[in-house]
Amino acid sequence: MAAKGRKTASDNSTAAASRAKVSNIGPKLRQAREHKNMSVRGLARYVGVSPSLVSQIERGRVMPSVGTLYSIANELGLVVDDLFTGALPRRKSDRGDMAVADVVNPVLKSGQRKVIKLADGVRWERLTPTPDKDVEFLVVVYDVGAESCPKDALIRHGGKEYAYVLSGRLGIKIGFEEFELAPGDSIAFDAQMPHRLWTVGKEPAEALWVVLNRHGDSRVHPA
After folding, report:
1. Of 3, 14, 15, residue with least CA distance to 204
2. Which residue, 59, 62, 9, 1, is CA-closest to 29?
3. Which pLDDT value is given to residue 82?
4. Rounded to the nearest 5 degrees, what angle is found at the Cα of 115, between the Cα atoms of 10 and 215?
5. At 14, which helix (H) or strand (E)?
6. What are the φ/ψ torsions at residue 196 (nearest 5 degrees)?
7. Which regions of the chain are under pLDDT 50?
8. pLDDT score at 89
9. Which of 58, 91, 118, 215 could form a disulfide with 158 if both were Cys (CB 3.0 to 4.6 A apart)?
């Protein structure tokens, strides 16, 4: 138990998330689907969910699970950074009155983070001030009972994943192996291996997460 008056990493992240702009991913998904001239039923069939679920996600009435979001985004040709919204933090150029465009501020304050809240208490907070096609740098939070996908469905995609647990305990299944990470533990794995994440115990799990060269997200149902 944390000492009285002492804030945990999870407390600080929660406070920052409350100040940050939460992305409304529904309209972005709908816009991408319509741009591809794909019907709700068509998208649902490719992803393997009901048309009703797709419709509710697009309307913002239901948040998808991590696995469902990855599958939808992949089918629509989107990457995770496409789902974060909001203006980029900028600063004035240091070159006086010269006709130079403003440059992106490399510093991202905690209250400026873009946040995606997913189903069952999963939250992503982007730690880069701008999208990056090669890397995703995130704070990932799993509330008590949260999971990236059901036990009978795993996720896999191209790239490498690296994580460092800040607080709580996080379970990770990679292939046929299961691991439990405690604060201070880290993991690195090939994301092409089918994997699944979930919270262990009665405390939210929070971790720093890096994904390099993600592509081809999909769900896999183990035999």
Report:
1. 14
2. 59
3. 75
4. 110
5. helix 9-19
6. -150, 145
7. 1-4, 6, 10, 14-20, 87-89, 94-101, 217-223
8. 46
9. 215
Question: Which amino acid is present at 117?
Answer: K
Tell me the sheet residues that pair with 167.
206
Residues 126 and 219: their CA atoms lie apart, in Å, by 23
Q: Is 92 exposed, middle or buried (0-12, 13-18, 19+ CB in 10 A)?
A: exposed
Beta strands in the chain (DSSP E): 21-22, 90-91, 103-104, 114-118, 122-126, 135-142, 154-167, 169-174, 177-181, 186-190, 195-200, 205-220
Question: Whole-prediction pTM value?
Answer: 0.74
What is the pLDDT at residue 167?
98
| Domains present along the chain, CATH in parentheses | 11-85+107-220 (2.60.120.10)
List Cα–Cα distances, 121 to 65, 159, 170, 223, in angstroms.
9, 25, 14, 28
Within 10 angstroms of residue 87's Cβ, the number of other Cβ atoms is: 8
